Amino acid sequence: MKVNLFNVTIFLGCFILFLLSLWNILKNSKKNRILHYFYAFLMTSALVIIMVLMFDFKIVKLYPWIVIFFLPFQYLTPIYFTAFICYYLKKEHIYHKNRVYLFIPFITFFALYTLLKVNVVLEYPWITRKVVTIIHTEIDENSALVFSIIISIWNYLIIRRYENAMGSYSFLQVKESTKWIKGLVFTFIVFNVLWLLTVILFFIRPDISGHFPYYPYWILYIIFYFTFLYHGNKHIHKINEEQSLENQQVQNAIEKFRIAGLHQIFAEEELKYIYQNPTEVTGILSYFATSLFDKNNMDDVLWDICENCIGQLQLEDCVIYYINANQMLIQKAAFGNKNDGERKILSPIQIPIGKGIVGNVALTGKYECINDVSKDGRYIMDDQTRRSELAVPIYLNQKIFGVLDSEHSQKDFFKEKDIQLFQLIAKLLEKKLTQLNTKNTSHITNDNVYFKELTFLMKEAKIYRDSNLSLERISKKLNISSNYLSQLVNKLSGGNFSDYVNSFRIEDAKHKLKDPKFTQYTIISIGLESGFNSKSTFYTAFKKHTGVSPKQYRQTP
Q1: Where are the domains of the chain?
Q2: Predicted model pTM
């Protein structure tokens, strides 16, 4: 076929689309998987048409070696579109679960393409020219068409299942949230129908040959692709910004929850630092504060601080020194090489007050941060030589009680934030030790404040809608002790953690059962959307809290 205005326009359009998509893949591939598959879909779609046009332009005839780079991209395009939809809907596990099966057609035809290329180079020793032509013009195209239609229908079903399982919005809002992506799937189903009609045309009209009948179809494709490229890019960025804002709001609620329990522990200046560094500080302090709540003797308190310093701060070593009656600093608790795993210190050492870095901190009551201990003659080696050390005094009743000490094998390891954090941890330790000394049974944290903020988080962030929510998961999310969280909920809600979470789920379900916007929802779908993971748990919990079944509740005026 000769070069004409139609095929040149189509070729240039596809080539520009290919370059734009490739550039964006290289630019965004690591940042956003939605955009990655979005551009991969557009790029492979353009490559399919470019390959066909190279035959029309006689480029393949002039340069036969170019077919080495021809791949069955028509089998990749539906795969990338599926991946795009799954990531857009946050259902990427569906794509990963079925990825191997999705790539079977591509791998099959890749192997077939390779065989045909070798066969052509060797001048058709195994497969005749006629059979090669049939494979290329009929079997390949028809198989790609069938695969594309099947994938388009499957994509539509993925969206439908997503709508049925979505519980954050009303029925109308769910439809609105999927309108854009569903419109894309319908568009591609229409394009598949046009493709099918074009193939049928060749069977009805044997006198028609070449790729000219595809040109109007391809022009529509290109118009759609560039529209999709422009509006799709804007839409995806808008969705990402909204998601980022939503995540930030949840994170702010979590930070507020963490800070709320620290107000009665720290002074105004200390709280000012916490507010300035919420992400780095509040989670760790909140965990320490809640972890200490059930410790009733000094040994448990000191060991808990050491173990959690390592666990939360990723330190190599942590030792708490205690000043005994003989004014000697003895190692009372440790983590790292000094701990044999049974809360026993290996080869404990004693340091006189005023000797070494730790002894000097105990004498002066001021912290020491040594960036390179090899240049400090006061350094006393313990289990092994390290490069940097941070030692902070621990007070009790306005007197030096001991020293919180940590060493690291890296020079200049401890930063200003570590110094501040160690001082705050020492303050926490002082609060708890004071509580033990005065026989005060109240917790160092404010249970009522924590519970109030937890309830706010449930209501505003609606974390109860996560069917996999557990005591361990939420305590990890909030960075507080799971034991503390369990006892907090038991004490202030009058029930266990499961009953507490289910109470919010039941209220959510009750609202939906009476809301006209959810009349098209089945009872079980409402239960699942409210956070229950099965029909039986929903019905059992609902009847326990309300005294009636969900069906009876819905039918009651």
Answers
A1: 5-249, 298-437, 447-555
A2: 0.50
The dihedrals phi and psi of 250, each to the nearest 5 degrees, come to -65, -45
Q: Length of the chain, please? A: 557
CATH T-level topology, domain 447-555:
Arc Repressor Mutant, subunit A (1.10.10)
| Euclidean distance between CA atoms 54 and 110, whole angstroms | 19
Whether the pLDDT of residue 242 is over 70: the answer is no
- What kind of architecture, by CATH, is found in domain 298-437? 2-Layer Sandwich (3.30)
Q: DSSP character for 463?
A: G
What would the two tokens of residue 158 be? 């993925």
Cβ-contact 213, 197 below 8 angstroms: no
* Helical axes 268-276 vs 416-437, angle rounded to 10°: 140
298-437 and 447-555 agree in CATH topology? no
Phi (first) and psi of residue 383, to 5 degrees:
-75, -30
pLDDT one-digit tens code per residue, 364-393: 999 999 999 989 989 988 878 889 999 999
Cβ atoms < 10 Å from Cβ of 425 = 22
Burial (CB count within 10 angstroms: exposed 0-12, middle 13-18, buried 19+), residue 325: exposed
Q: Reduced to 3 states, what is the DSSP secondary structure of residue 129? A: helix
In degrees rounded to 5, what are phi and psi of residue 57? Answer: -80, 0
- pLDDT tens for each residue of 455-500: 777 877 777 887 778 888 877 766 667 777 787 788 777 788 888 8
